[in-house]
Design brief:
The complex is a heterodimer of chains A (113) and B (110). Helix content of chain A is 0%, strand content 55%. Chain A has no helices and eleven strands. In chain B, 0% of the residues lie in helices and 55% in strands. Chain B has no helices and eleven strands. The chains are: A mainly beta (113), B mainly beta (110).
């Protein structure tokens, strides 16, 4: 069953705490995207990686957000310290270089109180 | 002005109706255009993909791109209650790294 797996599905945390979201891309996909979705802003690209190297993270607040790919089967997005305005659904998507389709995970619904 | 504009709806239609969903954009360099469907509390899934101008048909779905007007459309024929979802347009200058529209919420009533 080839799909993008994200954990946790839901996360409620207090302001100031560190949050780590994980993504397992589809096996063989070499491009990984992190998106954030809110009612106000819609779906925004935070960062994307190709062959584990960051290609573009201009959409990410650098002071508190960080994204990494420790290996080809794991991508992480960390927020430290978290703030209420970070409350959103965070999606990971993966794809193949040169292929237009990105396959999305189910998302992590983050609530920062 | 946002780079990609889309009427958020909600749009309610009776079952069997023809649905027209639209997006406008400002970046004339965009040449890859996609439509994603997103069910409630799920991730977006690709519906249609078009490169440059023209039409593309897939079953009940037709995607149109008019680059001269910076306008794209998705038509759904014989709409079904299962088509009720949010439809997101997405576009890019290159083949990845897409900019998404805010989405139009569609309800097809039985």
């Amino acid at each position: 069953d080839a799909r993008v797996t994200q954990t946790p599905r839901h996360k409620v945390t207090e302001m100031g705490q560190e949050v780590t979201m994980r993504c397992q891309p589809i096996l063989g996909h070499n491009t990984v995207f992190w998106y954030r979705q809110t009612m106000m802003q819609g779906l925004e690209l935070l960062a994307y990686f190709r062959n584990r190297a960051p290609l573009d993270d201009s959409g990410m607040p650098k002071d508190r957000f960080s994204a990494e790919m420790p290996d080809a089967t794991l991508a992480t997005l960390k927020i430290q310290p978290s703030e209420p305005r970070d409350s959103a659904v965070y999606f990971c998507a993966s794809g193949l270089q040169g292929n237009t389709e990105a396959f999305f995970g189910q998302g992590t619904r983050l609530t920062v109180v | 002005q946002k780079e990609v504009e889309q009427d958020p709806g909600p749009l309610s239609v009776p079952e069997g109706a023809i649905v027209s969903l639209n997006c406008t954009y400002s970046n004339s360099a965009f040449q890859y255009f996609m439509w994603y469907r997103q069910y409630s509390r799920k991730g977006p899934e690709l519906l249609m993909y078009t490169y440059s101008s023209g039409n593309k048909e897939d079953g009940r779905f037709t995607a149109q791109v008019d680059k001269s007007s910076k306008y794209i459309s998705l038509f759904i024929r014989d709409s079904q209650p299962s088509d009720s979802a949010t439809y997101l347009c997405a576009m890019s200058e290159f083949s990845q790294n897409f900019v998404f529209g805010p989405g139009t919420r569609l309800s097809v009533l039985p």
